[in-house]
Design brief:
The chain is mostly helical. The chain has six helices and two strands, in the order H-E-E-H-H-H-H-H. The chain has helices spanning 2-23, 41-63, 75-98, 100-115, 120-141, 156-162, and strands at 30-31, 36-37. Strands 1-2 form a two-stranded antiparallel ribbon. Helices cover 70% and strands 2% of the residues.
């Protein structure tokens, strides 16, 4: 298991460096003309965080400390991981069609209410507040448009208010 940790951590670190290199072709700092971050800021810094986290996993595996016993996934856990991965793939496939503001709340509803069996209050609050937060954070503050698919005409009045 330690060898698997080392190989995967090394691969993630290499992939992170590759992403950082490509992201640095765009501006990674604050763009004074647009009043927001450059086009490469989020990919660069997210890749940097991914690099540091993978480095921590690599260091832990090199020290030889592990809490692993037996198989990494038992069959029940593996089925959970596969179902969430399928749900994420469906969510990503829905984004160009239904838009981010429909696909993400649908995934959150499935994950929180159906998969996680959380309360209606928590599920409703997160499924409503998250798209609103994402709209104001990405579209209004950072001026980064998220895919809206068929729902784009519904956003025209909001664009008139904020742009």
């Amino acid at each position: 298991m330690l060898m698997a940790d080392r190989v995967i951590a090394g691969a993630i670190m290499a992939l992170s460096l590759y992403f950082m290199w490509h992201a640095s072709e765009l501006s990674i700092g604050w763009n004074g003309m647009t009043g927001g971050p450059g086009g490469g800021a989020f990919p660069f810094w997210l890749s940097a965080i991914m690099f540091v986290c993978a480095g921590g996993i690599l260091m832990r595996s090199l020290r030889g400390r592990t809490n692993y016993s037996g198989n990494f996934f038992d069959p029940e856990t593996l089925s959970w991981v596969v179902s969430v991965a399928i749900a994420l793939a469906v969510t990503i496939a829905l984004m160009p069609i239904a838009g981010s503001y429909i696909a993400l709340p649908l995934f959150m509803f499935w994950y929180l209410k159906i998969f996680g069996k959380h309360s209606w209050t928590l599920t409703g609050a997160l499924c409503i507040c998250t798209p609103v937060f994402l709209f104001f954070f990405f579209e209004v503050t950072l001026k980064i448009l998220l895919p809206k698919g068929l729902t784009e005409p519904l956003f025209f009045p909001l664009y008139a208010m904020f742009f």
